[in-house]
Amino acid sequence: MGGRVAFEIVRSAAERVTGLALLDTAYRPRAAGGAGERERAERMALVQIAETQGMRAMGREWLPRMVHPDRLADGALINSILEMLEHKTPQIFRAQVTALLNRPDATPILAAIRCPTLVLCGRQDAWSPVAQHEEIAAQILGSELAIVERCGHMAPIERPREVTAALYKWFSEL
Known about the structure:
Elements: H1 2-13, E1 20-23, H2 33-53, H3 55-62, H4 75-86, H5 90-101, H6 107-112, E2 117-122, H7 130-139, E3 144-148, H8 155-158, H9 160-172
Parallel strand pairs: 1-2, 2-3
Helix pairs in contact: 2-3, 2-5, 3-4
């Protein structure tokens, strides 16, 4: 969701953005036809779980696609993510899902970005794969692409040292 918010900031106030880090994100709108309907159904099924069973139950369904498979057995990591999710309400989650389902196409924004940009993702990000980040980086003039190994969609939580190192390297080169 953070990348989508960043795109909206660039869309509305590009002249105020002096650097941009896009982590584990996407830029396309929801697909048309069957693929888009499947995405809608999957996301709304998670909303239903959140509303009927709670945010922790939703998180247990959601997490297998969000973190690297090797990290699913890391009880401390999984519990910290589930605790983070429990700080939000099902109503907040529904609003986030609604926003994501109605997301605009950010393709026109990518070519217009003129500030230093880091595009980073986990190698095993099943939700926003490496190929998608390569597309993003290819469309932003002068951007830098960083891939975090043995990492899924939640790179800052899964691999904080590696993400911090990539951000530090990028910041130091600005």
